[in-house]
Structure formats: C-alpha cells, structure tokens
Amino acid sequence: LLCAVRTGNGEDTGRLLAQGADPCVRDENGRTPSSWAAEQGNESIVKLLLDWHQFQLSSKDIIRRVQQQSAKEGVSVIECFSKQFVSLFDTKDKGGRTPLSWAVAGGHEEIVKLLLQRYEIDIESKDKKHFTPLWRAVKEENEAIARTLLEAGAEVNSIKLEDEKNPSASGTYRGHEDIIRLLLNTDNVDLNATNKQNETPLHIAAENGKELAVILLLEKGSKIDVNLPDSSLNQTALFRAAKEGHEAVVKLLLEMGKTHIDVKGQVYTRVERKKILGAPQTPLEIAKSRGHEGVVKLIQEYSQEYSQSQRLQASS
C-alpha cells in the first residue's frame, strides 16, 4: 500500500484497501500512506483514504470493534471512535509530523482544505522541532495556506521553540510583505509576544535589517513596545539594529520619537574559544565599537535634537 501511494497509483491503492490492506501501515520513518499522499498533493488518493476511513467508521464491523475496545479499556465509545480517527489522519511519524504538516510544507492548498473540512484534526499539532502547520506555511511564504489555517483557527501567537520564533516573528524575519500583513492584521495577534529570550517580532526584524517588517510593525503604534529589552542580554530593538549597522532600521526607530537611546545591552565576544559577556553598552557605544559610522551619526543627531527639545520644554 505504501508503495502504491508513494508512486501515485490510485487504482492499486483502492484495490489494496478493498483487499484489507492496513491504511495505518508505517514505513521506516513512521510515515503512513495518508502522510505520503498529503505531501505529494495527490488529491485523488487523499480523498480515497478519507472516503475509505469514513466508510469504515460507519460500518458494523468498526462499531463492534469500538464497543469491544471500549469495554476492554474502560473508556467511552466516543473516545474509542476518536482513537480510530487519530490513528489515520492525526498520526505522527518519527519526526512528529502529521499529514497536515506535510501538505502545508508541500504547498498543497487543496489538500490542506480537504483535511480541515472533512475532520477536526489538530491544527496546532507540533512536530519534534515544535513547528506548527501555520509556522511551516509562514516559513514557506505561502500566504494562501497561512490564510486558510488562520481562518480555520490556527493560533498566530504559538511559539516555535527550536529557534524561538512564533509565526509573527518568523514572518517579520523573512520579510515577505503579504505574509507580514496577514499575520499582523489577525484580530488576536500579540505584537509583543515573546519567546524564552523575551524577543519580540520587532527584535528579530530589527536585528536582521528587515526594513519593511519594521515599518509594518511600527504602524501599529501603541500596540508595539519599542523599548522592550530581551531577557538574556537586555538588548532593545534599537540596540540590535545599531549593533548590526542597519541604518535604515535605526532611523525608523528613532523617528518614532519614543525610542530610548540610553538603555544598555550586552554582547558576547569570543576569547580563546570561550564566550565572554562584555560590559553593558548603549546603542551608540556598540555602534562606535563596531565602526558603524552612519548609525553613530544618526543616534548623535537624534540625541542633540532630543536634548534641545527638552531644554525648550523646560524653559517654556
């Protein structure tokens, strides 16, 4: 059956299912026929598996087996039916990935819709790298699938722990305008959502010089905390942009008028293969130490204008 599905042979797939082949059979990586069909975008085989499973769940044989399982395990019949469903369409391979995850990664929008429409599968299922289907859609810059998942209730603030980015942060890191707008315009999006290091999407966009992402984030105004430092090194978005020499991003942050330029952050340096934590520095100091003259000039000009403004306010 696995061979038939992997080669896209719908006729053999149907014949083998009719002969009693196990649709939950796994290969050496723990992948099932539904997993392979979803990744390949083979809609006819996915429908075949879905229809076969629906037929099985409505047959007298499955009812008898579920009743027996319910009595044996001491759980409800509904729970046993649920287990029968999960065994085929929410089953995970050795990497923790479901058919939905594979369909998203393959860019197969119709398969994604089919899976979401036919059954209540776990849309927040995380693989061993803690990727959710939505995170994968963002990673692949697939706006259509990301929109489909969001409309189906995917959580935009969910955290992907391996590299500590949630979908919003990942979108800003990659700089895809349509994806960023889609995520930021989601009703319940938390623009200050943080990971274990207390990094926000703005931190990540600023450090990577993603000017467009920074603009779109700053457009949210009061919803964005531009001065929020991370928890590991006390770095603000301005500090990170200054550290990397991203002049355009530094200018955007300063022009907002609410950015604190004196918050000190720290950086690690390597000394004889060891990471040494340096002394706290302001964004201006870190820019000077790294030779980012354009950034230095921007911060100095901003500082002078700010000081002059403060003096005028004090005298009025």
TrEMBL record:
Domain of life: Eukaryota
Keyword hit for Repeat: yes
Keywords: ANK repeat, Repeat
Xref: PROSITE patterns: ANK_REP_REGION (PS50297), ANK_REPEAT (PS50088)
InterPro entries tied to this protein: Ankyrin_rpt, Ankyrin_rpt-contain_sf
ANK repeats: 95-118, 129-161, 197-229
SUPFAM superfamilies attached to this UniProt entry: Ankyrin repeat (SSF48403)
Entry protein name: Ankyrin
Species annotation: Rhizodiscina lignyota
